[in-house]
Each structure stands twice: as structure tokens, then as C-alpha cells.
Design goal:
The complex is a heterodimer of chains A (about 525) and B (about 950).
Chain A lengths: L1 E5 L3 H5 L2 H14 L4 E4 L13 E5 L2 E5 L4 H9 L11 E3 L5 H4 L17 H6 L4 H7 L3 H11 L11 H10 L6 E6 L8 H8 L1 H15 L3 E6 L4 H16 L15 E6 L9 H8 L23 E5 H5 L1 H7 L1 H5 L2 E2 L2 E2 L1 E8 L5 E6 L4 H8 L9 E6 L6 E3 L9 H6 L8 E6 L4 H15 L5 H4 L1 H14 L3 H18 L3 H5 L1 H10 L12
Parallel strand pairs in A: 1-2, 6-7, 6-9, 7-8, 12-16
Antiparallel strand pairs in A: 1-3, 3-4, 4-5, 10-11, 12-13, 14-15, 14-16
Helix pairs in contact in A: 2-3, 6-10, 6-14, 7-8, 7-10, 9-10, 9-11, 18-20, 18-23, 20-21
Chain B lengths: L18 E6 L2 E6 L4 H7 L25 E2 L18 E3 L3 H15 L16 H9 L25 E3 L9 H10 L4 E4 L6 E4 L15 H5 L5 E3 H6 L4 E6 L8 E7 L2 E7 L12 H5 L14 E2 L8 E2 L2 H19 L4 E5 L5 H15 L4 E3 L6 H10 L17 E5 L3 H4 L1 H12 L3 E5 L5 H4 L8 E3 L6 H14 L5 H7 L2 H11 L6 H8 L3 H13 L3 E5 L1 H4 L4 H14 L10 E3 L6 H6 L6 E2 L3 E2 L3 H11 L11 H10 L4 E5 L3 H4 L3 H10 L2 E6 L11 E4 L8 E4 L4 E5 L11 H12 L8 H11 L8 H7 L2 E2 L43 E6 L24 E4 L1 H7 L6 E6 L3 E8 L7 E5 L7 H4 L16 E7 L5 H18 L7
Parallel strand pairs in B: 1-4, 14-15, 14-23, 16-17, 16-19, 17-18, 19-20, 23-24, 24-25, 29-33, 30-32
Antiparallel strand pairs in B: 1-2, 3-4, 5-8, 6-7, 9-10, 10-11, 12-13, 12-25, 21-22, 26-27, 27-28, 29-34, 31-32, 31-34
Helix pairs in contact in B: 8-26, 9-26, 9-27, 10-20, 14-17, 14-18, 14-20, 17-18, 23-25
């Protein structure tokens, strides 16, 4: 029976993949064709979704983007045998957008049946865990430290150091918490991996549990990710059934339990301490640090809180070694970063690549420029708290330190593109508004400052005491930057000030630059 | 807030034994490890601006005013949440910090009313102080932006108002409600700019779970949560530390005054019993002290059917003295007696019993402890050697297993209840032995009893002995402790006794109504769960076997080694402010001060020599015997100071009968209470605000009571007793209560080291305080029991004679609630009636259904003693077959129903078990109607009193 791959990924579904899959099944049946439909993850080339891949004797052959009305002609053209058709794309892995990526973390996404553990095992799955089970705890942590992996949630804190802190914190109970409350605008890498290869996250968390002696893990999942929840729970069930979770994992005597918890629908719950509060059943209020969650975390116990991508990168590190992973990247940014291209871009999608590529290469060579065809004017990198970059900054390499040097962040790798019709004063106002909407309300600079920020920007734009209010806006940003309890209020000034500094004309101001 | 500006260290003290030295603004500072940078600075006299931090609450880090710079650290950490570290270098003031703080202050003020001059907190506002401190001069945002200035004020609580327009969302109130009080009535609703303090689920305070303890008001840095008394009267100008006159917790308060007007009572954070916490009674319910019902002129009358006649003090005292002397002349020396008050001070109580023993020449003195904790005195004295609890309140914070028997701390002893809940939230285990599901069982947030032994009233002894049975037969006893510290022979006998099969949980399960497995599990937990502490109340003592249960509890503690250190012990929760003190002060007919028997000739000689009289070696009459003798005709005169026996004592028809038989009843009280309606002489009493003295709380803590206003009647209570004594021919000549205390100290081993100077110096002292323990004794029996070896005593269960029958099928038990206090003479004269304006009959839905009673119906409650009518409150807190009521209102007649059964050892009445019949009725009982007539008549005799100058 011919295997046909049609994605179960939310993006593909939103573009009609479900209907396409049903159409293929029904029409193949009625035509007496033999096809087994596999619902895989997405390859991440969103402009080609819904994508159909067919397993043929010449390898996998892709067609896309497919709509229901195309199905009849595809089947008639011999799609199941990999025959030509106007939507024929050939081997998807040969498309430059895909071919030039470094798919370490996303190696299996789009390739396998996400919830089939045999498929996972057949594609190098659980090799990292197997290695980890043979290692001492300190040796596992050392591999992670050696890999140079830094937190992919956005803060870029060295993962190995965090693990080591938890390892050395004496406690009767420790926890592994996966931050899957992916809330940054224009980001979807966590969702894609949870929908497209949930086992890799489960394996990564299991290894983390072994490394630090935690027997319980929680995935705090964004409530707006229902498909990811289904995939994760299916995979967790399979892992339990096959002895990869629970007591005595693979007869090692080691225990690790894992549960998915739905998030509270608040952006702030993606902040790790707020997440812990929420996971404990309380209001998602930010905790002060210290104590670090690594020492006093979930229910007061030492806890690793890692982002999905950080944890999903662990299996390849334990499989191929920290050195292997470290060989990718530049400077202190090692390994790969799954970038997410969104906004006004011709080729939106997921692009996992080693650190070091420039933004310009990504935007133009792979992203294909703006979707509207107009010049790209501003790019926000790193989510709603990331700075807006102007054209003059597009040659900055994708590297934590290089971005920090221009007062920008890579964050979680979200890239939102705007063409020259954008009004950057609106964007600055939106940044403050976002903070108004999402502030937990605990600290004063964020709670009151964001509301005042919107008002002050409005006054500037309205032309009311422009200079005085511009000074006030800068003072407010200073108060928020240095006074806020967490990055929510502390980083809101990044998009605001970058817009003000690089695009003063949108505020009706002369160049604010000295 | 408190008008008296004391240092707020911002975060709680660290208890670490290790010290850390750091540098703050160039000064070397050494503090306990674990302290915050903010606290370290405050200890060094360096003030860092703050709004969300206060030293009664854990740090929160939200206002961001207290940011500092620390060498080598990134950014500007909040000093309240940053712990000190060795060698740390902190800078608290520089231009950058000043600019951030001003920026934050500017944000605060952009959403705050600019009405400082007319604000109730003007001059007493932390926001005002802090904004001044950081030098904010301009709010550039203007005042046109979004704000909360139009928020509606909530004035539903009778004592404080909540004005969200002034709120800075520091969460101090929310945290106080959680951390300090443990009620969790407050939360922050909404997020971001919409965040606002919300009682319950956006309800008015009075409709929320709020218990009006005042912790939120105390914690509020602005006028958002503000006492209405301050709004009405302005900020107080001076304050005096004194001790609350309500329950046996003995909270320390600052009476904040304007001249002689008490504006508010503020819990004293240095108070060693309450650590700055309070309850609705002590914090707010002081209005009775100046209530219009206060009687401030002495009154006399020949017969109780006569109108009262106001007279001078001299005349009233002379009238009383003549009457009493006349009675003695006619009926003999022993025909008169007196009752001391557990509401009055130690010194006053001492003086009354001295008057009786030395002036009346007999030992006919008793006190209200007769009807509450006399079995505690007997039981603990017999086993441990001292008639008192063994611990400090703070000890509970070291307990691992807490067993609460027949007590309801969250209602009866709320401030201690809050401390206990805090420990329970930290993870201590809880066993509740009570017929009712009190709040601790499962109605307190984040607290749940591990085991609730919901026993049938009257079966305490069987349950306690069954627990002992499990401990002994399962080998869980601490043999080493018992053999070393206790009388070995008694221990052996006791073990054999409790091990008998008839004492097993299985054997008594049906009798007690408690499943055997629950008793077994509870016993195992208490014996093996670490530090085990027992707290008990009147649900233990007010039984026909009250003393036996106390003994059984002492046995449990000794057998498990839970005695003599922090976290363990046997702790009676005393009902009234000075019930421990009144017992200590020789109020019992058989004991001199310090629990020494009157037949002990050595002690008697000591008193005879000090007092210059010959003293009787025969114990005098107990209260119930006085009533009996009055009805018999051999007891004719009674001096009652600050007690309301006509309401509080059981079988009230009998009591009223006795009182009517008296030829002279002298009542000294602040109100014309129920007893005074039977009196011939009324001597105006002074409230706790009008006199000096001391109260002794449930943990033996002697705390100062200080005069903040002139007695309304012109005399402090001790002066009145002294005048009466002099008129009776026994001279007393004290010029200040401190002299009385000096006399007590000279005559009493446990008090030898106590003096007013020492109390002033230490704040309070826990007796015994003498040469051996000059600073007092927080934990008793530490190295050895007071009596030498602890004595085990056998606790044979004997069922009460008060049995249910087809005629009286239900058991009535009684108790009290948070907002009212005992007979209610004080709390009924405050706004606390907003919470509880009548006594209700609580019954289980099942019983209600069978009886056809709906919530709010009038129910006739009839016992073998009498009948009264109460409105029904249907609640599953009760168990089927058991009904409950409170006794805060005289016309409720709860004590019309209670019987004259009493404890075998001490005559403590069996309030907790009365067989009753309940039925739906249409009108008050005959007793209630008669009593209403009598009471109305007495009030009209008061109303129509003949004024002093006529």
C-alpha cells in the first residue's frame, strides 16, 4: 500500500489539510486505489501547505499546495506513483529552503508519523536516552554543558549550568518543567515540534529527569494548542506502554513520569516563575528571583524549567555528543536555532539553521522578500518584546551577542517582517498595548507604565508637546527597563525605543539620533 | 498602619544563628544570614524607600521602590527580595536609583487622588512618606489618563472602609489575609492595569469570607483600608500599650488615643502572644467601653422590686458593708461570700479573694473558672503538678502533629487559631476530636484535618482511653521518657488498665460513634508523627467527666514523651482574658494564691502573718454550693465582681431562684448585667481601659493592662474592693496595683520574681518567675515535672447520667462564635451584632427533615431542666442527633436548658451534654416570656432610678 503523508500540523490544517486528507482517502477508495494516509508533521514550508508527500520507489515525492479540488486531478495524474502534475514539487528535501537548513532538532519533523513510536525508533529515536542510561548523572550534564546549548525560550541561559544547579540541589523531589506556553507573536517552532515529533520532547525531558534526579515532569502547554495536546498525549501513552516512561524505564530501575498541563491562556505564564505559579494552581503572578527555580521551583522543589526547543535538542546531543552539536554555530551561540519566518514574507515557515547566517540572507535568499513585493522596512526579531530592526541592520549575523550589541534580541527565533507601508509609531504603541494586555500586574513599572506608555505615544503622535512627551517616553522606558520585575515590563521598551530611534519620522519627529 | 511611628524593617527577621557582614553605603553591617538587604539596611539605620514591603509579611518585590545597586550584580535588584551575602557591597542612593524611584513614584501618583490634605491617612500614609522621600515634584503624565479614581467605596464593614481609588495594589492586604490570618478572603482580581483588590469574588467585604480581623487594615500603607473611627476622628495623637480584655490569647495592643478618647486599637507587633495580629473583637469591638449603657453612679435599693437609687460612693459602700455585716451577725460568718472575675485584673481578683478570706473571714470565694476550666486545674495539677498549660503559643510553630480536642480556635481563640493554621499550612498534621465539623476540619483554606474523630458528646474519656490503648498495645509509647520522667508504678498500672480489651477502639466504636480505624490511625499519628501537641477547650472540661478527660490527655502526652520542649505539650485554651490569672490568684474556695490548699497550715500561717488575721482552714463554698445554700437559707449575701452568673451558669432557673433568696447581692460591673437585675447594691466597674493591672493569658503570660482614660465611675475596680474592705473593718491601703503585685510576689513562689518594673522591661512574663527562672518559664516541665515525677492516673469511662430517651432524643451541646464573646455583655454593645444578632439552634439536615423544621423556623428546645425557643440554623457541620447553640444573648435562655450535672471532681457544669427534645413552635417559651417581663421591669426600675442629687 502506498504511504501518503498529509500533515496534521495546525498550520497545514488551517490551510485545509484535513479536507485534503479526507478527499484523498475517499477518492482513492472510490477509484480502487490503495493508499495509506499518514498524518505527519509539517516540513515547515508553509507556502506549500497543504503538502502531500508520496512514498514511491524513487523516494518521497511532494505536491503542493494542494486544495480539495486538486485531489481528483492529482490521483488521475498518478500521484500515488509519483507522477508529474502542475503541483509536483519533487523531493521536498531538495528544495533549497529545506536543503540549506541544519535540521538537528527538527530532523524527524514532517518525515515521520509523530505518534508512532516505531517510526520514532526507526528514525534514530531514543538513541540519546539509551546513551544517557549508560552515563552517570554528571556525565549527562557534562554533555549538555559541552554542547554549548543555551535556553531557546529567549533568555539564552546556558542549559548545562541550569541542569548542574538542579543536580546539586539536595531534595526529596525534583521536577522537570517544559515551558510550552509559546506565546510570542510570529513563533511556532514549539508547536511544530510538539505536533510533529512529540517523542523528541518526551525523550529530552526523560534525559533531563535522569540527569538531575527528577522523577516527575510537566509540560505546561499553551491552551491554544489543542492539536499539540492530542499529539503529546498520544505519544506519552505510547511511551508509557513501551517502557520509555514510568517506573523502571527500559529496565534501568529509573523512574520518570510525565504529564501535560493546559496553560491559563496568559502570555505572562510563559515567564518561568509565573508558569510555576500557574502550574501550582495559582494566579500567574511573577515570582521574584532569587531564589532561582533551579533551587526553589515547582512546589518549592528544585526544578528545571526549559523551553520546548531546548529540551527537544537534548536527544541529538546525547545521541551524537555535545561536541557534535557544538560544531554548529558561531561565537558563544552554538548549535542551531529554529527560526520562524512570519509576517509580510513570501516564504513563511520554519528554518532551522546554525547560528551565524545573516538576517538579510534569511529574509531574501530563503524568505524570498516580502509577500507584498514591496521593500522590507522593519523586522521584529524575538517576539513582541524584541527590537525592530531597520534595513541598515539586516547584515547582523543571527547570534546572541551580535544582536545584543545592537540592542536587539534573538529571543525564541520569531521573525516578523513588515514592508514599507508599516507605521512604526503604531508598532510602538502596539508594543505598549501588548504589555497593557499581558502584564500580570504585580510590579508597578509594568502595571501602570504600559498604560501610560500608550497615552504618551498617542500624545506624541497627536502632536501634543512632542518634545516634552518624547523625553517622558524615554524616561518611562528607562523606568520600565530598570524597574520591572521580569522581562515583560523590562523588555517592552525594546520595540518602543527601536521604533522611536530608527523611525522617528513615523512619530512626526525629526531624527532623534544625535 | 499605626500612628506611632515605629521602625518597619520591611521583611521579617531571620532566625538563622549565622551572621553575615556586608557593606551598605560604606557602612559595615552584621546581620543574621537570610536577612534581606532591606532589613540589614534598616537595622543599620539606613532607610530604603518601600511600599509593598512590611516586616509582618514575606517579601513580595512588587513596588520596585527599594531597588539598590550591588557591586558585581546585574541591574538594580530589589532590596526586599535580595538576601544578604558575606562581603556584599550595596549602594542604596545614587542618581540612577533616585531617577528610577522617582519614575515609579510618578507612575503611582498618576493614578492616585490628590486629596492628601483631606485624606484620613494624612500624616499617617506610607505613600505620602515615600513619595516625599524620593522627591517627586511633578507628574508629567497629567491626570487625564486611565485611572481608578472613580472606583466605588465599600463601606459594608461596620469598622473599616475600602476605597479602591486610593489603592496602590501593593497586595499587602491580600498577603496579610493569607499569611497572617489564613482566611484567604482577598485576592487581586484582573491583571495589569485592571488589577484590583477583591474581597471574595468581587463582593463587598461583608459578603465575602472576611472575618474582619483587621490584618488587611493593619497592612495597608494608604487610606484604602481605613478604620472608620479614624476617618471620623482623625489620626490618633498618642498611644499606650495594653492587653486585650477578650479571650485567653491575651493580645497586646496599642490603644491609640486623642486625649482620653480611644480612636483605635492597633495590635502590637512586639506583642509576645499575638505578634501584631488581632481579631474582630480585640481590634474593633471596644465601643462597649463607652456605651451609653455604662452605669457610672453607684446605686442601692432595699428590695429588687424597688427602683434604684443613685447614691455617692461612700453611701453605696457603707450600705453594702452594713448589709453584709448585718447578715453575718444574723446568719453567721459563713452566710456570705464572693465571686471573683476572670475579666478583671490579677490584682483586683487577688484583692477580692483577700477581702473574702480576711475580711469576710471565710473561704466562700469562687470564680467563673468553676464553670469552665476547673477540671484543667485539677487534672493537670494531679498529673504534672501545676494547674496550667505547658507551652507558649509560639511552640505550635514547632509542632508536627496537632490534636485539637473540644476546642474551636478559629472562633474562640482566633489569633492563636491563625498561628495554628499557619503551621498547618506548613505541613503539620491535624487531628480534630469534636462532635462538630469546626472550621479547622475542612472549612479553612489550605487546612484539612487528617483525622476528624466526630464523637458523640459525652464520650471524650472513652475516645482518649482508646487512643491510649492503641499507643500501649501497638508499642508506640515512649517508654524511655515515661520510665525516666514519670512515676514508674503509675505508668505500669496505667498501661495494664488502658490495654484492657474493653478500652480498644473496636470496643468503644459504637459508644463513641467514631470508627475504630480512625481512632487507631489518629493514635498512631500522634504517637509517631514527631512533635505532638494537644490543644483543648471547654469541650473537654465541661462534662461530668471533665477532669478525667484532662487526666487522660496528660497521660497521652506523658506516654508519648510529648512534654517538656517546644512543639509538644498539653495546652488548655482559656476562655477569658484572665481566667488563668483568676485561678492563679487564689479564687478557688480551697486554694490560696499559687494553688496551695487552705488546709496546708504552713501556707496558711504565711498568709495569716502577712494579712494579720486568722484564716479558715476549711474550703469554702463553690458557686453551685452557694446557690444551693442560698435556696436552703444558709447563704444570704454575695459580692460579685465582673461576672454574670445569672446568664452564664447552667440551669438558670435554679440560679435565678437562688439569687432571689439573697438578702444582699452586691454587683460590681460596667453594665446592669443579668445578675445585677437581682442586686441590691450596684457598684460601677471600670473597663480595662480605665485601670492599671495585669492579665495572665492561657500560656501563663502576665501582661500589662494600662490605664488610658479616667474611670467613668471615678474608681478603678481594685479601689472599690479596697473601700468595701475598709468599710467592713478589714483595712487595706494600696495606692497603686503595683503594690498589690508586690504582695502577690512576696507570698507566691511562682510569682516571686514578678514586678511591674520587670513587666515593663520585658513586655510580659510567663510564670513561674522566681530566682530559678528570673525571666519566666515559656515551656514547663522541661527537665522534671513540677510534682517531681509525672503521675499516670486511670481514666475509667462513666457515662453521664444525662441520657437521651424517647422523650429527649437529641443531645444539645453549646459553644461560642467568633464575633461574640461569652454572655455578650460587651460584644452585644458593639457593631459585632452585624455578624451575629441572635443565638441559633444548629441542627443537621437529617434531623431537621425528620422534625419538619426549615431554616429560620422557631424551635422549642426542651430538656429536663427547662425550655426555650431558638431559630433553627440547618447545617451539616452538625452530626445527626446532636444540636448546638451559643449563649451570647440572655433571652436565648441556652442555660435554661442545661442541667445541674457537673464534673465529679470540680463541679464544672456539664454544659456540653444535655438531652433535649426539639419541635417547631410559634412563640417564645414560658420562661422566655416570664424573663422578658422581669427584665423589662428591671430596666424600667433602672430607667426610673432616683438621681443622686434628688
Amino acid at each position: 500500500m502506498t504511504r501518503v503523508f498529509i500533515s496534521r500540523d495546525s498550520t497545514a490544517l488551517s490551510l485545509g489539510a484535513e479536507q485534503v486528507a479526507k478527499a484523498v482517502e475517499q477518492q482513492a477508495n472510490s477509484k480502487g486505489l490503495s493508499a495509506e494516509i499518514v498524518r505527519n508533521g509539517s516540513r515547515g514550508l508553509f507556502w506549500l501547505e497543504p503538502l502531500i508527500e508520496v512514498e514511491t520507489s524513487q523516494g518521497r515525492v511532494a505536491y503542493g499546495p494542494v486544495q480539495v479540488e486538486d485531489v481528483a486531478s492529482l490521483l488521475d495524474a498518478g500521484m500515488l506513483d509519483g507522477k508529474q502534475h502542475p503541483l509536483f514539487l519533487g523531493n521536498i528535501e531538495e528544495i533549497a529552503y529545506f536543503k540549506n537548513q541544519n535540521r538537528l532538532t527538527f530532523a524527524r519533523v514532517g518525515l515521520t508519523d509523530p505518534v508512532n513510536i516505531d517510526d520514532y525508533l526507526a528514525h534514530d529515536g531514543y538513541r540519546g536516552l539509551k546513551n544517557a542510561l549508560a552515563l552517570q548523572q554528571t556525565e549527562i550534564v557534562k554533555q549538555v554543558t559541552d554542547s554549548g546549548l543555551r535556553g531557546r525560550g529567549g533568555a539564552a541561559f546556558p542549559t548545562g549550568i541550569k541542569w548542574n544547579t538542579v543536580l546539586n540541589a539536595p531534595a526529596d523531589q525534583k521536577y522537570i518543567v517544559c515551558n510550552a506556553d509559546e506565546g510570542d507573536s510570529g513563533t511556532f517552532s514549539d508547536r511544530m515540534i510538539m505536533e510533529g515529533d512529540p517523542f523528541v520532547l518526551i525523550e529530552g525531558m526523560t534525559i533531563a529527569g535522569l540527569a538531575v534526579g527528577a522523577t516527575q515532569g510537566y509540560i505546561y502547554l499553551r491552551v491554544e494548542y489543542p492539536h499539540a495536546k492530542i499529539a503529546l498525549n498520544q505519544a506519552i501513552e505510547a511511551a508509557y506502554k513501551n517502557g520509555y516512561l514510568g517506573e523502571n524505564i527500559q529496565n534501568s530501575g529509573k523512574t520518570f513520569h510525565l504529564e501535560v498541563r493546559s496553560g491559563a491562556g496568559a502570555y505572562i505564564c510563559g515567564e518561568e516563575t509565573s508558569l510555576l505559579e500557574s502550574l501550582e494552581g495559582k494566579r500567574g503572578l511573577v515570582r521574584f528571583k532569587p531564589p532561582l527555580p533551579a533551587i526553589v521551583g515547582l512546589f518549592g522543589k528544585p526544578t528545571i524549567v526549559n523551553n520546548v526547543i531546548s529540551l527537544a535538542s537534548i536527544p541529538v546531543i546525547l545521541d551524537k555528543g555535545g561536541e557534535y552539536y557544538k560544531n554548529y554555530g558561531m561565537g558563544r551561540s552554538r548549535g542551531t536555532l529554529p527560526l520562524q519566518l512570519a509576517g509580510n514574507i513570501k516564504h513563511p515557515g520554519l528554518f532551522e539553521v546554525a547560528f551565524g547566517m545573516t538576517l538579510r540572507e534569511l529574509l531574501y535568499d530563503y524568505g524570498g522578500g516580502s509577500a507584498s513585493g514591496r521593500p522590507i522596512r522593519a523586522v521584529q526579531v524575538g517576539g513582541p518584546l524584541g527590537a525592530y530592526l531597520h534595513e541598515g541592520q539586516f547584515d547582523t549575523p543571527l547570534d546572541y551577542e551580535a544582536f545584543a550589541a545592537i540592542s536587539a534580541v534573538l529571543g525564541h527565533g520569531g521573525i516578523v517582517v513588515h514592508d514599507d507601508t508599516v507605521n512604526m509609531a503604531d508598532m510602538a504603541r502596539y508594543a505598549m498595548e501588548f504589555c497593557v494586555e499581558e502584564s500580570c500586574g504585580k510590579c508597578t513599572p509594568c502595571r501602570i507604565g504600559s498604560t501610560r506608555g500608550v497615552e504618551v505615544i498617542d500624545r506624541i503622535v497627536e502632536g501634543v508637546q512632542k518634545d516634552k512627551n518624547t523625553v517622558l517616553l524615554r524616561d518611562l522606558c528607562d523606568t520600565m527597563t530598570y524597574g520591572s520585575l521580569c522581562a515583560m515590563g523590562g523588555m517592552t521598551p525594546f520595540p518602543v525605543l527601536s521604533a522611536l530611534n530608527h523611525f522617528p519620522e513615523d512619530f512626526g519627529l525629526q531624527s532623534a539620533k544625535a | 498602619m499605626s500612628a506611632n511611628n515605629e521602625i518597619d524593617y520591611g521583611t521579617p527577621a531571620s532566625s538563622s544563628a549565622n551572621q553575615v557582614t556586608l557593606e551598605i553605603d560604606g557602612h559595615k553591617v552584621t546581620v543574621n544570614a537570610g536577612s534581606s538587604v532591606m532589613r540589614a539596611a534598616a537595622e543599620a539605620g539606613i532607610s530604603i524607600p518601600k511600599l509593598c514591603a512590611t516586616d509582618s509579611l514575606d517579601p513580595f518585590g512588587s513596588c520596585r521602590m527599594c531597588l539598590v545597586q550591588i557591586e558585581g550584580a546585574r541591574g538594580y535588584p530589589a532590596s526586599c527580595t535580595t538576601p544578604v551575602a558575606e562581603g556584599m557591597k550595596v549602594c542604596t542612593q545614587n542618581d540612577k536609583l533616585a531617577s528610577i524611584r522617582r519614575g515609579i513614584a510618578e507612575l503611582y501618583i498618576s493614578d492616585h487622588p490628590l486629596d492628601c490634605l483631606t485624606c484620613a491617612a494624612n500624616g499617617d500614609c506610607e505613600l505620602q512618606d515615600t513619595v516625599g522621600q524620593v522627591g517627586l515634584r511633578e507628574v508629567r503624565y497629567g491626570f487625564e489618563g486611565e485611572n481608578h479614581l472613580d472606583s466605588e467605596k465599600d463601606t459594608s464593614n461596620p469598622y473599616f472602609s475600602f476605597d479602591p481609588a486610593k489603592c496602590i495594589v501593593c497586595s499587602r492586604c491580600v498577603r496579610a489575609c493569607e499569611e497572617v490570618q489564613g482566611t484567604f478572603a482577598l485576592t487581586i482580581d484582573g491583571r495589569g492595569f485592571d488589577s484590583k483588590v477583591s474581597p471574595g469574588q468581587n463582593q463587598p467585604f461583608m459578603e465575602s469570607e472576611c472575618v474582619s480581623c483587621g490584618a488587611c487594615v493593619q497592612a495597608c500603607p494608604t487610606a484604602t483600608l481605613m478604620e472608620k473611627a479614624v476617618i471620623d476622628n482623625g489620626v490618633p495623637e498618642h498611644s499606650t500599650i495594653t492587653t486585650c480584655a477578650y479571650c485567653g490569647v491575651g493580645c497586646s495592643f496599642k490603644a491609640e488615643m486623642k486625649g482620653e478618647q480611644l480612636v483605635r486599637m492597633v495590635p502590637d507587633k512586639n506583642g509576645q502572644a499575638n505578634h501584631g495580629h488581632s481579631c474582630v473583637k480585640g481590634r474593633f469591638a471596644f465601643g462597649y467601653a463607652t456605651h451609653k449603657d455604662r452605669i457610672t453612679t453607684p446605686m442601692v435599693r432595699e428590695k429588687i422590686s424597688d427602683p434604684w437609687r443613685e447614691v455617692s460612693w461612700e453611701e453605696a459602700i457603707g450600705f453594702a458593708a452594713n448589709k453584709l455585716k448585718g447578715i453575718q451577725a444574723k446568719y453567721g460568718k459563713d452566710s456570705i461570700g464572693g465571686i471573683t472575675s476572670s475579666r478583671c485584673t490579677n490584682e483586683e481578683t487577688y484583692l477580692v479573694q483577700k477581702l473574702i478570706r480576711a475580711g469576710f473571714g471565710n473561704n466562700n470565694v469562687d470564680t467563673c473558672a468553676r464553670v469552665c476550666h476547673s477540671p484543667t486545674g485539677y487534672g493537670l495539677k494531679s498529673t504534672f503538678g501545676e494547674s496550667s498549660g505547658t507551652q507558649t503559643f509560639d511552640s505550635v510553630m514547632q509542632s508536627d502533629v496537632i490534636m485539637v480536642i473540644g476546642a474551636n480556635p478559629t472562633d474562640g481563640h482566633p489569633v492563636f487559631g491563625s498561628m495554628m493554621k499557619r503551621r498547618l499550612r506548613q505541613g503539620a498534621k491535624l487531628i480534630v476530636v469534636d462532635p462538630r465539623s469546626i472550621d479547622l476540619v475542612s472549612n479553612s483554606p489550605h487546612v484539612k484535618a487528617d483525622y476528624h474523630l466526630k464523637l458523640r458528646p459525652g464520650t471524650n474519656v472513652a475516645v482518649v482511653t482508646a487512643l491510649a490503648h492503641v499507643i500501649v498495645t501497638e508499642g508506640l509509647a515512649d517508654e524511655k521518657f515515661a520510665l525516666e520522667r514519670c512515676d514508674v508504678e503509675s505508668f505500669g498500672k496505667w498501661k495494664t488498665f488502658v490495654a484492657l480489651p474493653e478500652h480498644s477502639p473496636e470496643a468503644v466504636a459504637e459508644l463513641t460513634g467514631v470508627p475504630a480505624e480512625t481512632m487507631r490511625a489518629a493514635a498512631r499519628l500522634y504517637a509517631t508523627g514527631g512533635n505532638g501537641a494537644i490543644y483543648y477547650g471547654l469541650g473537654v472540661t465541661e462534662h461530668s467527666q471533665g477532669s478525667t478527660t484532662v487526666i487522660g490527655i496528660a497521660n497521652l502526652a506523658m506516654a508519648t514523651g510529648n512534654i517538656g520542649r517546644d512543639g509538644v505539650g498539653v495546652n488548655p485554651l482559656r476562655g477569658q482574658n484572665n481566667v488563668q490569672g483568676s485561678c492563679d490568684m487564689g479564687s478557688f474556695p480551697h486554694e490560696f494564691v499559687g494553688y496551695r490548699h487552705v488546709s496546708d497550715s504552713q501556707t496558711r500561717m504565711q498568709f495569716e502573718s502577712a494579712w494579720g488575721v486568722t484564716l479558715s482552714s476549711e474550703p469554702g463554698l463553690r458557686i453551685p454550693n452557694m446557690f444551693g445554700a442560698a435556696i436552703d437559707g444558709s447563704f444570704k449575701g454575695l459580692y460579685v465582681q465582673g461576672e454574670d452568673i445569672a446568664q452564664s451558669d447552667p440551669d438558670i432557673t435554679h440560679v435565678h431562684h437562688a439569687l432571689r433568696e439573697l438578702e444582699c447581692l452586691v454587683v460590681q460591673d460596667i453594665f446592669l448585667n443579668e445578675t445585677a437585675k437581682f442586686a441590691h447594691v450596684f457598684l460601677p466597674g471600670s473597663s480595662f481601659l480605665e485601670k492599671n493591672g495585669t492579665f495572665t493569658n492561657a500560656e501563663r503570660r502576665i501582661s500589662p493592662v494600662r490605664k488610658v482614660m479616667t474611670p467613668l465611675g471615678g474608681k478603678e475596680d481594685w479601689e472599690v474592693t479596697q473601700d468595701l474592705s475598709n468599710a467592713l473593718g478589714y483595712p487595706m491601703n494600696y495606692s497603686h496595683p503595683s503594690e498589690i503585685m508586690d504582695e502577690i510576689a512576696a507570698l507566691t513562689p511562682q510569682f516571686a520574681g514578678v514586678s511591674y518594673e520587670k513587666i515593663d522591661e520585658m513586655g510580659s512574663i510567663q510564670w513561674p518567675c522566681n530566682d530559678e527562672t528570673p525571666d519566666g518559664t515559656p515551656i514547663m516541665h522541661a527537665d522534671h515535672f513540677v510534682r517531681g515525677k509525672g503521675r499516670f492516673m486511670l481514666t475509667e469511662y462513666v457515662a453521664t447520667e444525662e441520657r437521651t430517651s424517647s422523650k429527649y432524643p437529641l443531645i444539645l451541646t453549646t459553644g461560642r462564635i467568633l464575633s461574640q464573646y461569652n454572655v455578650g455583655a460587651q460584644t452585644r454593645r458593639t457593631e459585632n451584632v452585624a455578624w451575629h444578632e441572635e443565638d441559633r439552634l444548629e441542627l443537621h439536615p437529617h434531623d431537621a427533615e425528620v422534625l419538619g423544621i426549615s431554616d429560620g423556623d422557631w424551635c422549642g428546645v426542651k430538656s429536663r431542666s427547662g425550655e426555650t425557643v431558638l431559630r433553627a440554623l440547618i447545617t451539616d457541620r452538625m452530626q445527626p442527633g446532636v444540636v448546638y447553640t451559643t449563649f451570647h444573648f440572655p433571652h436565648s435562655g441556652a442555660n435554661v436548658i442545661t442541667t445541674d450535672n457537673s464534673d465529679w471532681a470540680t463541679n464544672c457544669p456539664e454544659y456540653k451534654v444535655t438531652a433535649v427534645h426539639v419541635a417547631k413552635v410559634a412563640q417564645p417559651s414560658a420562661w422566655q416570656q416570664e424573663y422578658q417581663d422581669f427584665s423589662d421591669n428591671q430596666l424600667s426600675l433602672l430607667e426610673n432610678r432616683i438621681a443622686v442629687n434628688e
